[in-house]
Amino acid sequence: RTSMSLHKVFVYGTLKRGEPNHHWITDTSKGLSRFIGVGKTIKKYPLVIGTKYNIPFVLDSPGQGHNVVGEVYEVDESMLHHLDILEEHPTFYTRETEEIELYAENIRSECWIYLLKKFKPEMLEQQHFADYSSSGDHGLVYAERYQREPSYNYKQDVMP
């Protein structure tokens, strides 16, 4: 019997419970995932909502913004690969390890997080959030892929 490699992934945006892309991380045909708990980044990061499709991004600019609140999942290699496809790692988001404090256990754990490394400097001037919700009082509702114009390249809005 082969041992499966499991990974902890910290999600802060549309993959969280109750958010539009949560089905990506719970689709058992794509691999295993298990909810571990809610936590936050040890380092502060700017979590912004960008593009006309209101996509949440954590900008790779540690020390700015907030300790970002999110959820930790334990996933297998297959699910991690599936999430890499959604997040377009490594060409758009970059998956890196980051220390996350899990609230319930009061422990720190190394988790994968998807960061936007290449972004226009003006993105740092947008409102920074600590905790993302598509239905938040900011009114910036996330547009799912099927709702987007195929010809519109949202990456041009964020990448230099």
Low-confidence stretches: none
**CATH first level: which class?**
Alpha Beta
What name does the CATH topology carry?
Answer: Hypothetical upf0131 protein ytfp
Q: Based on the structure given, which CATH architecture is correct?
A: Roll
**Main beta sheet strand tally, sense and closure:** 5 strands, antiparallel
* Overall 3D shape: globular
Overall number of structural domains? 1
Q: Rg from C-alpha positions?
A: 15 Å
Helix content: 10-25%
State the CATH superfamily name. Answer: Gamma-glutamyl cyclotransferase-like
Order of helices and strands: EHEEEEHEEH
**What portion of residues belong to β-strands?**
35-45%
Our measurement of the CA-to-CA distance between the termini, rounded to an integer number of angstroms, reads 47 Å
Mean pLDDT value: 95
Number of strands: 7
Family: Belongs to the gamma-glutamylcyclotransferase family.
Domain Gamma-glutamylcyclotransferase AIG2-like: 9-131
Keywords: Transferase
GO molecular function, one term: gamma-glutamylaminecyclotransferase activity
What do these coordinates show?
The active site is at residue 87. Pfam families: GGACT (PF06094). There is one protein chain. It contains three helices and seven strands, in the order βαββββαββα. It is globular. It has helices at residues 22-26, 77-87, 155-158, and strands at residues 6-11, 33-45, 47-50, 55-58, 66-76, 93-102, 107-116. By secondary structure, the chain is mainly beta. The model has no long low-confidence stretch (mean pLDDT 95). It has one domain: Roll (Hypothetical upf0131 protein ytfp), CATH 3.10.490.
